[in-house]
Design a protein that fits this description.
The complex is a heterodimer of chains A (757) and B (287).
Chain A lengths: L21 H6 L14 E7 L5 E7 L1 H5 L3 E6 L10 E2 L6 E2 H8 L4 E2 L5 E7 L2 H9 L2 E6 L6 H5 L12 E3 L2 E3 L4 E9 L2 H7 L2 E9 L11 E6 L5 E5 L4 H12 L6 E5 L15 H11 L3 E4 L2 H7 L6 E9 L5 E13 L6 H8 L7 E10 L13 H19 L3 H7 L19 H10 L1 H4 L10 E12 L4 E9 L5 E5 L7 H13 L6 E5 L16 H28 L6 E4 L2 E4 L6 E3 H5 L8 E8 L5 E12 L5 E11 L6 H20 L30 E6 L21 H13 L10 H11 L1
Parallel strand pairs in A: 1-16, 9-11, 14-15, 18-19, 22-23, 29-30
Antiparallel strand pairs in A: 1-7, 2-6, 2-8, 3-7, 4-5, 9-10, 11-19, 12-17, 13-14, 13-16, 17-18, 20-28, 21-22, 21-27, 24-25, 25-26, 28-29
Chain B lengths: L4 E3 L4 H11 L3 E4 L5 H6 L7 E4 L4 H4 L1 E3 L3 E5 L4 H5 L2 H6 L1 H7 L5 H4 L4 H7 L7 H6 L3 E6 L2 E6 L4 E3 L2 E2 L6 E8 L5 E8 L10 E10 L2 E10 L6 E2 L1 H4 L9 H14 L10 H23 L2
Parallel strand pairs in B: 1-3, 2-3
Antiparallel strand pairs in B: 4-5, 5-10, 6-7, 6-10, 8-9, 11-12, 12-13, 13-14
Helix pairs in contact in B: 11-12
Classes of the chains: A alpha+beta (757), B alpha+beta (287).
């Protein structure tokens, strides 16, 4: 709806070609993590702790070692002990010691499923049988499984040796790994002057990314101490970095080959099995492949953090927000980092708030170490903020879109962490919501007898990261272009990156053939995460394509023996500006170009893409007798910057909405008091299936980012942010009930209805 | 899991011999949608799997003068693709069409569902309210038991060592009989019942002449709620009379609280589903 900075009619961008990896994936030819088979390969298995919190007293591996078909057994003694050094940036940061201990526990297990030993055997059954024969003697400790327990007085401490950071003060013996605060303006004064102050606290359950493909890790450790790894990951360089740290090797000794990914949503950034396979390979000099079951995935990977978020907002008599306070307590899981800085950044991101204070706590609990999950921590805080905003609108009788427009964050609005927004598109999204067929439709047309309908709306934000990406291009003799990249393709990024190169070169998307390669074959490329890939790797492809054109012109100049400035390039043809006889197609110039083949490469290290905003509208139908909720109409509106491949952008919007609806209605880690997840299967971890969702309508709003030549913004993460509050607000609209805990499952609805009566 | 033998006998006698030989170390394989998953999950330690699908009686579907008879390994889809079964026994079809998804229904059988004896089984309540009879084979020949006696506890059935289920017989009724099965799941498919009810009614002169109600997922086995069923016999099927039955069914339900539901919610659901299934069954007989 808004023109892009380059302001031209695109030939490739905005079209919907078949993705380059489409046929391989549809036919089953694509190779995922566990598909790798190497000569002489052994199968690894691990021993996992049945306890959520325990000290390892001893491990006896002798019986397993004696079993026929067993080649090697390992414990954490086979891993180097690492110091408490902070490494990395962005979504894979953390301490080296914790990284290693999460792979395999040294002296303490911190969650059920924590790995304590590994074994390599001739086949899977033998490996499993051997793992059962490894005897671990535990001293069982009391676990803490939620933020209240963890922060209570006399709570059992997970990390006795860890130095916590509480507002800059070093603190020992606490389960609060970090407490940060952000303040802006005069909060007290704001609340004092307020006409209305509303406060709510929400309780979010732990949730899992739920990717279809479980984790696996395959490795060969050769005689020169070089380690080759094959894995399904969102970042092959992140795996290289993590594996080299855990194994205490130089990065150049580790080569990571990314396999196709069967989903990740942030959860395929951490490493789990790769170093174990590597050590077992060192001991056996054979390739070792180790795989997880679905229960392993639930018990020991991911999840997205649960926690409690309290939000208080004060408005003046005209409905303008004067002040806002947030208290955010998120479960880091067994090791620090529940994305509390991201939470602080997102909690009031949709509003212009003159005075705010945010306290955020990173809380250690005996659950698997939390991993990024699509806009990490943003849905958790949005549930609180958007519920409070909805309550304000209900109390004052405001239209929820008008209230949001009155207080909308836009270019120049100061954000919680300080910087002002550059061009963003929240206002345009709200306006598009207001004009949408959905918002204008009659909620109560054809409800099923005896059921109540409700409509809810909510907004959400993700900031979208930048960072490093590299792309190489080479012009083949047939005039087509090979594009080499390091961004593992999780949601159609081969297509969206190749399309940007094709646009620059003026050739069809199909003529650019993208390949995702190993870490020895391309420059450093950060993870496919933070909604950065189409933006950052796409930018590198854009730059590389421009460099390729320079190369093409240079070669043509050599060939024709004229000066470069007399030559121009457009749409796959290089020609003289003055002599119409001098003209070559890409195929002609690529056939034996003077001075060698035509190649180019580019790399970037970018700032954030300017933030993405989403507004969702949900219509529900609720059976008051059973508490069953059906989503009957749903619309996702989002500022996508510039949709390179609109189908995949719509797919991201729908996928994010579907996951968020799952959080809202049924998904949770259902834990026993001793810290065991009881519903660790897809039967009982109730993600929505196709029949649970209506067609999710999408409205793409294009307010181009200032940071990218085509105006690209990240699109993958914003759509998971609004669904939980949109559903909660719709339930309130239908039944007059404020459910403040996820999941808002049937029994919670019927219980709340009984309480109300 | 360790390697085990696979047998595919072609007669009842042959199957009995193999099952007797292996005792508890053998399991029958019908559709395999439970047995294979449970074997891989190391729920039992097997030396033999006995595939019963090659025994003609196990997959046949026939009508006698008094019964509909279908083999224990007859896949669900065979039932719901049979127009006569659909017409006569829509309550059975409710179940057959609910178990798993289409792929599962192409393999899974009501007989297997019964032998698996899950408290939340979607097939068993319907069989109970249709007064189904189990035909069981053993070394001493065939015997019959009412279906409500088949389940003994979660995963435990009434089959003795070496015995297996051959077929299920459903007595034919006149047109004034029908039934309905409904389960509650938070999602819309591919889920396990939080609570479920099957109800059947037979009408005579405007009154309920017989009624059966069965409850699932609210006890260690599917429950034949006889005490509730009897409250409406001889009475008109009014809203009030139905309510009395559904309240009694709620009383009979004795669920546990777990990740799938709370005690209170499950009991409330039994009341709602009893009402709804009786009404549906009545609607099907044209009341």
């Amino acid at each position: 709806m808004v023109s892009t900075p380059e302001n031209k009619n695109y030939k490739v961008i905005g079209t919907r070609p078949i993705r380059h990896d489409g046929y391989d994936k549809v036919t089953g030819r694509a190779q995922y993590g566990a598909d790798i088979k190497l000569p002489g390969m052994l199968i690894g298995a691990v021993v996992r702790s049945p306890h959520a919190h325990a000290r390892i007293k001893s491990i006896d591996t002798s019986e397993a070692e004696r079993l026929d078909g067993v080649f090697a057994v390992m414990t954490a003694k086979d891993l180097p002990r690492l110091g408490d050094v902070v490494r990395g940036n962005s979504e894979e940061s953390g301490s080296e010691k914790h990284l290693s201990e999460n792979v395999m526990a040294f002296d303490k297990v911190l969650y059920k499923g924590h790995v304590v030993a590994g074994v390599a055997a001739k086949d899977q059954n033998t490996a499993f049988e051997a793992a059962k024969k490894i005897k671990v003697d535990y001293e069982i400790l009391k676990p803490v499984i939620d933020v209240d327990q963890a922060m209570s007085k006399d709570a059992p401490i997970l990390h006795e040796d860890y130095t916590c950071d509480h507002l800059g003060k070093e603190v020992k013996n606490s389960n609060v790994a970090a407490h940060v605060r952000h303040e802006n303006g005069d909060l007290e004064n704001g609340f004092d002057k307020a006409d209305l102050v509303v406060e709510k606290e929400v309780d979010m359950q732990t949730v899992h990314q739920g990717y279809i493909e479980p984790h696996s890790g395959t490795a060969v450790w050769d005689e020169e101490d070089r380690v080759k790894v094959w894995t399904s990951t969102q970042g092959s360089f992140a795996v290289r970095d993590s594996v080299s740290k855990v194994l205490d090797l130089d990065v150049s000794r580790v080569k990571v080959t990314p396999m196709e990914i069967g989903g990740g949503f942030g959860g395929k950034i951490p490493i789990y099995l790769e170093p174990i396979s590597a050590v077992l390979s060192r001991k056996t000099r054979r390739p070792v492949k180790t795989m997880m079951s679905r229960t392993d995935v639930f018990d020991a990977t991911g999840p997205g953090p649960g926690g409690k978020v309290k939000v208080k907002i004060g408005i003046d008599a005209d409905g303008k927000i004067l002040a806002a306070y947030a208290d955010i307590r998120l479960e880091a899981g067994a090791y620090p980092e529940a994305f509390i800085e991201a939470a602080a950044k997102c909690v009031f991101s949709c509003y212009d708030v003159p005075a705010m204070k945010i306290d955020a706590y990173d809380v250690l609990v005996n659950k698997p170490s939390s991993a990024p999950y699509r806009a990490p921590a943003s849905p958790q805080v949005a549930f609180a903020t958007e519920t409070v905003v909805d309550e304000i609108c209900k109390i004052k009788g405001y239209d929820p879109i008008d209230f949001r427009l009155l207080n909308v964050a836009e270019k120049g609005t100061r954000t919680a962490l300080g910087p002002k927004y550059r061009t963003i598109g929240l206002k345009e999204c709200l306006e598009a919501a207001k004009k949408s067929d959905h918002w204008k439709s009659n909620l109560n047309s054809n409800p099923k007898t005896g059921k109540k309908r409700g409509r809810g709306i909510a907004s959400g934000y993700w900031f979208n990261i930048g960072f490093k990406s590299s792309v190489n291009l080479s012009l083949n003799p047939d005039g087509k272009v090979a594009l080499i990249e390091g961004s593992t393709d999780i949601g159609g990024s081969r297509a969206s990156i190749a399309m940007q190169a094709a646009e620059v070169l003026g050739i069809p998307a199909e003529d650019v053939r993208p390949s995702v390669v190993d870490t020895d074959s391309i420059g450093i490329t950060d993870v496919t995460g933070g909604s950065r890939t189409t933006y950052a790797t796409g930018y590198a492809a854009y730059n590389a394509a421009h460099k390729l054109i320079e190369e093409i012109i240079e070669k043509a100049a050599l060939k024709w023996d004229i000066s470069k400035d007399q030559i121009e390039y457009s749409d796959g043809v290089v020609k003289s500006k003055t002599d119409s006889e001098l003209k070559m197609t890409l195929k002609e110039i690529a056939d034996d170009p003077p001075g060698g083949p035509i190649v180019s490469s580019a790399s970037v290290d970018l700032e954030e893409a300017g933030g993405g905003f989403a507004v969702h509208i949900a219509d529900l139908e609720i059976d008051e007798e059973t508490g069953k909720t059906d989503v009957v109409n749903y619309t996702a509106i989002q500022d996508v910057g510039k949709a390179i491949h609109p189908s995949y952008v719509e797919g991201q919007m729908q996928g994010g909405a579907a996951q968020g609806i799952g959080w809202a209605l049924n998904e949770e880690y259902f834990m026993s008091d001793d810290g065991v997840m009881l519903n660790s299967s897809y039967l009982d971890y109730r993600m929505p299936i196709a029949l649970d969702l209506p067609m999710i309508n999408t409205i793409m709003v294009e307010v181009p980012s200032e940071e990218h030549p085509y105006g690209v913004r990240g699109v993958g993460e914003p759509p998971i942010v609004p669904p939980v509050p949109a559903i909660g607000n719709a339930i309130n609209d239908a039944l007059g009930l404020r459910l403040l805990s996820t999941p808002m499952k049937p029994s919670r609805i019927t219980e709340a209805l009984k309480r109300k009566k | 899991m360790h390697p085990f033998n696979y047998y595919a006998p072609e007669s009842i006698e042959e199957a009995s011999k193999i099952l007797e030989k292996y005792g508890e170390k053998a399991k029958c394989l019908a559709g395999g949608t439970d047995v294979l998953v449970q074997t891989r999950g190391e729920k039992f330690d097997l030396d033999a799997i006995v595939d019963v699908k090659k025994i003609p009686e196990l997959t046949e579907l026939k009508w006698t003068d008094s019964h509909l008879v279908f083999g224990a390994a007859t896949p669900c889809y065979v039932l719901y693709e049979d127009p006569k079964v659909c017409e006569k026994f829509p309550g059975i079809i409710d179940s057959a069409f609910l178990i798993g998804g289409i792929q599962i229904q192409s393999r899974a059988s009501l007989g297997g569902n019964l032998c698996n004896a899950s408290p939340s089984a979607d097939g068993i309540c319907s069989l109970i309210v249709h007064e189904a009879i189990c035909v069981i084979a053993g070394s001493s020949g065939l015997r019959e038991i009412p279906v409500e006696e088949m389940c003994q506890g979660p995963g435990r059935n009434a089959l003795e060592n070496g015995e297996f289920l051959v077929s299920i017989k459903i007595p034919l009724k006149d047109n004034k009989f029908s039934a309905s099965y409904e389960r509650f799941i938070p999602r819309n498919e591919m889920d396990i019942a939080v609570a479920a009810v099957a109800s059947s009614v037979e009408m005579q002169d405007g009154k309920v002449s017989s009624c059966r109600i069965a409850l699932a997922a609210v006890g260690p086995t599917p429950i034949y709620a006889q005490a509730a069923s009897e409250l409406i016999i001889g009475k008109e099927p009014t809203e009030d009379n139905i309510k009395i039955v559904s309240e009694k069914a709620k009383e009979i339900a004795s669920p546990i609280a777990d990740m799938r539901g709370t005690i209170e919610h499950r009991k409330d659901l039994i009341e709602v589903l009893t009402r709804r299934t009786i009404s549906k069954a009545l609607e099907r007989v044209g009341v």
